[in-house]
Structure formats: C-alpha cells, structure tokens
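Sequence, please.
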C-alpha cells in the first residue's frame, strides 16, 4: 500500500499540493481566530475587552469553519473525482474497492503531516498580524504579545481532518462505483441528472433558507439578523445540490438565445456536456459573491439601525466623549448646564445556573454591560425603547435593565433576578426594565456611580443654552455635539473596523479556495485537450475555450451568488429600518469585478501552463 501511495503522490503532485494548500489555509484561519477566542476567555490582561473579543472571534470562527469546510471538501472531492480513471485501471489489474478506498483515506490523512504544523504556524502569524489592529482599536492593551494555544490549534486541525476524511470517503464511493470499463470509456459525458433524494434535499434546504430569511420579522434584533445571514448559506447549499442541472440549463438556453457563434459553440457544448465539472467552478465563486454581498449589506444595515437607535435614544441636549476623569465635573460647572450623566461600559459575565441535582452546572456568558451614572431621572436622557418596567427604578440597589434580545426564549421578566459579575464581584440583580434598542445600547444596562472615567457625556442644559455650553466646553478641550452627529461618528468604532478587516480576510480565503478549485479542474482536463489537439484545435483555441467557459461560469456565479444574498439583506433592512440605508456601493461593485478578473486570469494562466507541459511531455 505504501508503494502505491508513493507512486500515486508522484503522479498526482499538483492535485495533492492544491489540497494541502487549502487545508493549510483553513487550519491557519480557524486557528488564528481560536487563539483570540481562548485569550479573551482566559487571559486576565484582556478582562476589560473580553466580551468584544469573544464575540468577534466566535462569529469569525463560525463563518470561517463553514467556508473552510466547504473549500476543503470541494478540493478533496474534486481531486478524487478527476482521478477516477486511475482508480479504474488499478481495479482492472486486481485492486479491490476496499484497498483503493483505504489508499484514498490514508493519502488524505497524510496531507495533514505537512498541513497541520504549517497551518498552525500560519495561524500564529495571522494572530500576530492582527495585534496592531486590535491595539489600535483598544481591544488589547499596548505591548500585548501574539496569542497562542496548542489546544486551539489541535482542535482546528481535528475539525479539518474530519471534514477532509468525510469528503474523501464520500467522493471515493462515487469514484469507485461501477465497472472499470465504464470509467475508462472515452466519451465520459456527464448527465445533468439528480437523484430523488438530492432533489428532495434541495427543496427542503431551499424552504429552510426562505424561512430563515424571513426571521427578522419574527425574531428581535441581532437574533433575526443572524438567522437571515444563515439563509444565504442555506440557499447556496441548495444551489450546490442542483448545480449540475442549473449549469446545463444555462448552457442550453444560451445556445438557443444567443446568435450562432463559433467562438461560443465549443464552450457552451462543453458546459452542457460537463455540467458537474462547471458546477464545481460556479459554486465556490458564487459563495464568495454571496458572502461578500450579505455581509457588506447587513453590516451597513445594522450600523444604520444602531445609529438610528442611538439618535432616538439619546435625549440629552448635548453629547460628547469622555477624555479624562475630570470632564464630567468640568462640564457640570459651565453656566447653563443643569445635569451631567456618563454613559459607559464594562466587561462582565452573565451567569446562568442549572440546579439539576445529578449534574449541576453554570454557564458564564461574557458580555459588555452599559453603565450610567448621574444624579437625576435617567428617563430624561435615555429612551432605549422600554417596553416593560421603567428606567426610573434603575438607580435602586442591584438593578438592571435588559434588552428583549437577551431575554428571548426565556421566561425571565420584570422582577426576576439574573446573576451579573463585574469587577470580580457577582451580584443578583433585579430586572426593572426591558427595552428593544439593543443595537444602540447593548443587552444590559446598570447604574454605576463613579463611572465617570470613560464613555459618553450626556449633558442637560437650560432652554436655549445648548450652543453656548458647546462653545464653552470646546474652549476647555471638550467636544459636545447633538446626538445625531455623535451617533454618526460612533460608526467608526474599533469593533466595526475589526469586523471589516476580518470580513475581507474571509473573502480572500474563500477566493483562494475558489481559485484552487478552478486550477485543479483545469489540470484534470489533459485527456480532453489531447483529444481536441488531435482533431486540429490550436493552443489559442484551447485557451480561448477554457477562458470563455470560465467567464460564463463566473458571470452566472456572480448573479446567482448575489441573488442568494438579496433575501437576507431585504429581510434585515425591512425589519430593522424605516428607510433603506446607504450601502457601500463601491465595495459591492468592486467585488464582482475582482471575481471576474481573478477567474479569467487564473483560467488563462492555468490552461496555458498545462498545454505547455503537454507539448513538452507526451501523455501516456
């Protein structure tokens, strides 16, 4: 078996290298996020920002794991599918299906010998590269070292190993199915037919995606937004299940609708005849288009909703940032100022205990808790959309206001208590108010006397004195403005910047996986190019044909990928906003252009290199 594996690796080096690159990148991406997740949970030096770090890293891990799993599974399955003839020849000379499947699985696991350590190192490098970003946004202290955790790296490797082995086992069932003669036949035209089980699964996933896209109308705040984002991946999954049929249908309709053109005849015929192969190109690029569109759109929508909630909820005459512990007292002494409050935040934990007699346990959820301090009724400066209770009771001992999002799915309400841990002290706090503006004010709000060292100044002024107070404060180095202007400036906070950088990192990884799949599929077409060359196809004709096929596939990938993101964006926008937000159109337009250019250039280079090797080395 080892001799067979060595010889197989020598013959299929390009495919194995592509799979190793995909696995290495996947381990690196997940490990980097896992390092920060573990650091946020366990490192006391990050206690003040652990809630934000855990939230950002956990959401990144979820999306990265999904994309990485799809990328690795697609790369492994594509490589095995392209080697079907090799397995057929081995079966013809006596190799059993069990032995060949063992070779495939062992070969897949051996890829991790190189991918695991290199991927872990890549994860450490990526984590180190994000330190300046997180330091600049205030999420980690100065001189904080790059995080590393061996358990996290092992976990990331184990997850990818399971994904790769399952993908290899599933692909091997198809590759080893049937008689050897069937796999060696020259025609090898792929029928774009789907089994009953696959059709039913696609319909179920499609229905689940449609239902998930409508969740913002039924579920509050970010819970509904999260379900809407999931709908995009469900719709992409449904698209992948019926990909061959869609690809063949597109090619057939195009041949009938477009004028007869010799330049398009061969590419469209190839797309129709090899619909499964082209679907393997279409789906990864559609995933990149969908991921970019849904994340950019929903980020813009939630940012706009947060700004609207802040603008509507900050009732103070003037608002401004706290830059020193003396700012509140300084502003309070200005003529025309009636009251000053400070709206800040602390990192803490909400503790949920289970009193099961046999197996008691507690869940500690890291959260960012909003704090307010002042001397008057909080309802005069804050209106976070209270639906039950009142903020007037918030100045009582051990009280808390909680968002409807945080209480969703529980029976907890006004008068009940929750355990909240702040400053190494756990208190059972009574819920005195429930509000809806969680995007603007967070999930928890407590009274915190003496919290004037940071946050936001909320200033109440005498009638007609707001402008004078702002001018006097500005002369003392304190910037006060109206709530709308202040909420707009809050859009550039560190967490939003970090999320944007991580999004582009995810897009880059997904694009790398798509390019890797495209290159692997082109390398597997050597027999086809040999045959076309024998009947007179020139090098230019082959390059043009493959490039045209890729262009057609990517155009429809962009259209279909964007279409799968539209339901989530529409549902989120309609549920959270009264009007449509200003979307990042420049980025949304640049994304398909980058996809188109990357796919076209990659296809042209890959097929040119393959043809050059064919002319220099006879294919046997």
């Amino acid at each position: 078996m080892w001799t067979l594996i060595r010889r197989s690796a020598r013959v299929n080096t390009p495919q194995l290298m592509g799979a190793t690159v995909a696995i290495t990148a996947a381990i690196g991406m997940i490990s980097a996020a896992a390092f920060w997740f573990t650091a946020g949970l366990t490192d006391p030096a990050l206690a003040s920002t652990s809630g934000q770090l855990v939230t950002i890293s956990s959401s990144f891990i979820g999306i990265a794991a999904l994309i990485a799993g799809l990328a690795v599974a697609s790369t492994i399955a594509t490589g095995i599918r392209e080697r079907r003839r090799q397995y057929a020849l081995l079966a013809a000379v006596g190799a059993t299906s069990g032995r060949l499947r063992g070779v495939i699985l062992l070969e897949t696991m051996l890829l991790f010998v190189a991918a695991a350590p290199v991927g872990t190192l890549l994860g450490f490098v990526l984590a180190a590269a994000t330190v300046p970003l997180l330091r600049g946004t205030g999420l980690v202290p100065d001189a904080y070292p790059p995080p590393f955790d061996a358990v996290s790296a092992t976990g990331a490797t184990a997850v990818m190993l399971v994904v790769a082995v399952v993908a290899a086992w599933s692909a091997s069932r198809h590759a080893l199915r049937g008689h050897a003669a069937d796999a060696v036949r020259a025609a090898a035209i792929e029928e774009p037919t789907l089994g009953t089980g696959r059709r039913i699964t696609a319909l179920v996933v499609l229905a689940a995606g449609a239902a998930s896209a409508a969740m913002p109308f039924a579920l509050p705040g970010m819970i509904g937004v999260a379900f809407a984002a999931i709908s995009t991946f469900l719709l992409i999954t449904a698209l992948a299940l019926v990909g061959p049929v869609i690809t063949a249908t597109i090619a057939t309709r195009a041949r009938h609708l477009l004028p007869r053109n010799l330049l398009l005849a061969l590419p469209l015929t190839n797309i129709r005849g090899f619909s499964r192969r082209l679907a393997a190109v279409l789906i990864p690029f559609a995933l990149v288009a969908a991921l970019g569109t849904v994340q950019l759109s929903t980020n813009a929508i939630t940012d706009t909703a947060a700004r609207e909630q802040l603008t509507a909820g900050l009732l103070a005459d003037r608002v401004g940032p706290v830059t020193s512990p003396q700012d509140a007292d300084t502003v309070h002494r200005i003529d025309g100022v009636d009251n000053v409050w400070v709206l800040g935040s602390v990192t803490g934990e909400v503790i949920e205990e289970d009193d099961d007699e046999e197996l008691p346990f507690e869940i500690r959820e890291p959260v960012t808790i909003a704090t307010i301090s002042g001397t008057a009724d909080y309802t005069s400066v804050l209106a976070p959309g209270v639906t039950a209770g009142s903020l007037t009771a918030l100045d009582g001992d051990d009280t808390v206001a909680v968002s409807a999002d945080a209480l969703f799915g529980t029976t907890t309400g006004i008068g009940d208590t929750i355990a909240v841990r702040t400053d190494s002290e756990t208190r059972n706090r009574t819920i005195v108010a429930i509000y809806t503006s969680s995007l603007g004010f967070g999930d928890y709000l407590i009274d915190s006397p003496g919290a004037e060292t940071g946050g936001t100044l909320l200033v109440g002024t005498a009638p007609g004195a707001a402008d004078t107070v702002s001018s006097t404060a500005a002369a003392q180095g304190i910037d006060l403005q109206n709530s709308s202007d202040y909420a707009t400036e809050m859009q550039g906070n560190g967490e939003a910047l970090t999320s944007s950088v991580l999004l582009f990192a995810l897009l880059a990884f997904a694009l790398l996986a798509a390019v890797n799949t495209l290159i692997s599929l082109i390398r597997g077409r050597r027999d086809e190019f040999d045959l076309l060359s024998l009947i007179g196809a020139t090098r230019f004709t082959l390059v043009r044909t493959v490039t045209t096929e890729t262009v057609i596939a990517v155009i429809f990938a962009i259209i279909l990928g964007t279409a799968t993101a539209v339901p989530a964006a529409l549902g989120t926008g309609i549920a959270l906003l009264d009007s449509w937000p200003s979307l990042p159109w420049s980025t949304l337009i640049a994304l398909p252009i980058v996809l188109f250019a990357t796919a076209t250039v990659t296809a042209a280079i890959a097929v040119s290199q393959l043809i050059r090797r064919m002319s220099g080395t006879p294919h046997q």
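Confidence is low (pLDDT under 50) at residues 183-187.
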